[in-house]
Amino acid sequence: MRNGGTWRATVALVTLLAATLTACGGARDGAGTDVGDAAPGRSTETTDPTRIPGVGDHWQRRIPADSRQVVAVYGDGVDSADSTVVLYTKRGTDWDRVRAWPAHNGKKGWTTDHREDDKRSPVGVFTLSDAGGVLKDPGARLPYTRSAAFAAPRWWAKSHWHDFDYVIAIDYNRVKGTPP
Fold first, then answer.
1. CA distance 22 to 138
2. 137: nearest Cα among 27, 18, 19
3. Helix, strand, or coil (residue 32)
4. Segment (H or E) for 11
5. Where are the domains of the chain?
């Protein structure tokens, strides 16, 4: 984290074991960027292709060895709600960067010590098992729940009305198999 830690600590990883993230990738116009677009302030090149860029040893060791895909979420700062989601796919022993999307995390940023109602996203390695959103299933390979209940409240700023068009639940403090 920027205040006392390293950038690596602001990276939250979620691993995808059996399903593939085409799961919620959807092909919305402008939703993702092709390979070659780095997360803000970061190069697309990595010195060790067997590692996820920007992720320290502590979190690298927690990625299950049989993972085929990793979704890394790079926060714009420890207190920022803005982030970039990057999909990596494993080919042999190397991790290839496939796509990136702008994203939102907790309103108050990230934390390694998440508490109920702190409005921060937890940092860690988590599996993905369920997806959903306001819009129709984009061809998810994860179980997908479409519901108006995902819609942002209309009293929120209009710029946030589409924040929940597509949602992927990280398996942190939740019951797998239930809507995100």
1. 9
2. 27
3. coil
4. strand 11-16
5. 7-127
